[in-house]
Design a protein that fits this description.
This protein has a single domain, classed as Arc Repressor Mutant, subunit A, CATH 1.10.10. Helices cover 34% and strands 11% of the residues. It is built from 3 helices and 5 strands, in the order αβααββββ. α1 packs across α3. It binds zinc ion. Zinc ion binds next to loops.
Length: 109
């Protein structure tokens, strides 16, 4: 008798999403919106996945590369501590035209 694997097992699915994110980011840089469209995960779930991905990357001496969000109007660069969330407004010129942060991973050697 052979046991079938359950494809809907939640822990297994969580791991797969992060693997999808990882392989997609190897071809980055992508914004959260682009990444969510590419892997079919809601954008609001990405910050958590990215945080977990960073932890597992750290264990392999790798790093998530983040191009910080930037104001299109005045060029203000947002601090990296807000990097997993898209800022809504520039603190300097109050413009709402914000270029979202982009994520990527270096190609695997
Ligand atoms: Zn600005």
């Amino acid at each position: 008798m052979k046991q079938e694997q359950n494809p809907n097992e939640p822990v297994e699915r969580g791991r797969t999403i992060r693997e999808d994110i990882e392989s997609t980011l190897r071809h980055g840089p992508l914004t959260a919106a682009e990444l969510s469209a590419a892997i079919g995960v809601p954008e609001r779930d990405l910050p958590e996945h990215l945080s977990h991905l960073e932890l597992s990357l750290r264990g392999r001496s790798e790093r998530l590369l983040v191009l910080p969000a930037r104001c299109v109007r005045c060029g203000f660069v947002f601090e990296t501590r807000t990097r997993h969330k898209k800022p809504s407004r520039c603190p300097r010129c109050k413009s709402e035209r914000i270029e979202p942060p982009r994520y990527s991973l270096p190609p695997q050697s």
